[in-house]
Design goal:
Largest sheet: 5 strands, mixed
Structural class: alpha/beta
Helix content: 25-40%
Number of strands: 8
Distance between the termini: 34 Å
Strand order of the largest sheet: 5-6-3-7-8
Number of helices: 7
Shape: globular
């Protein structure tokens, strides 16, 4: 279970405080597949980082009773002067995973070729996302957070991503942020619309997409 209790997030800018989330409360149980939609700048990525624990709320409480991935595609945890392989070794040690398994799985899935053994600072943003996706899949989280990563790479890699996410969804929880209706329908059963600092949940992903399209047209 993931529980938000009166969570607010405010960023301080030169023009004053920018409130991204305003006293948001909800809970997500095990086995759910939820799509999060909203306009650009609505705070979707902020929401996923809060769920993952990458950022902390300005106020309110967040509790988790299941293991949660970092947002897949988020490469902020990588040490840029280390190679992809060395970053993988480091993460494997943190999560007490078999080094040989992690290295083999990540190298195969990310398909970075010789770059896997080159510093991450030499990677493109897409390559970093591929590495982050592969490392996430190599660890058996109970909840996976996906932030637009299925758009990374060529058609073959995108299909591998989609197939892997379907497999994880069948045995765990999936929270996905995407602007693509087809992707959301493929992976999610229900959803939420983030608008004006508030998160409105809907019983089906079709209702969520419809609400989002109405909001865009307003």
């Amino acid at each position: 279970m993931i529980v938000f209790e009166g969570v607010s997030k405010v960023y301080h800018t030169r023009n004053g405080g920018r409130r991204v989330l305003d006293r948001v409360s909800f809970s997500i149980g095990r086995g759910r597949s939820i799509g999060i939609v909203g306009r650009n700048g609505a705070g979707k990525s902020t929401l996923t980082r809060l769920i993952a624990g990458v950022e902390y709320p300005t106020s309110g409480k967040i509790s988790r009773s299941m293991s949660v991935s970092w947002p897949i595609g988020f490469s902020g945890a990588f040490q840029s002067s280390l190679t992809g392989a060395d970053n993988t070794r480091f993460i494997a040690r943190i999560y007490n995973k078999n080094l040989n398994y992690m290295l083999g799985m990540v190298e195969d899935f990310a398909s970075l070729g010789e770059y896997f053994r080159m510093p991450v600072k030499t990677y493109s943003s897409g390559m970093k996302a591929r590495l982050a996706f592969a490392v996430s899949l190599a660890i058996d989280f109970e909840c996976y957070i996906v932030d637009e990563v299925t758009a990374v790479g060529d058609a073959s890699f995108r299909e591998r991503c989609a197939s892997a996410l379907r497999a994880r969804r069948e045995r765990g929880t999936l929270i996905m942020v995407s602007h693509d209706a087809a992707t959301l329908r493929d992976h999610c059963e229900s959803g939420g619309l983030l608008q004006g600092g508030h998160l409105h949940f809907y019983d089906t992903i079709d209702e969520t997409i419809s609400a989002y399209e109405t909001a865009l047209a307003a």
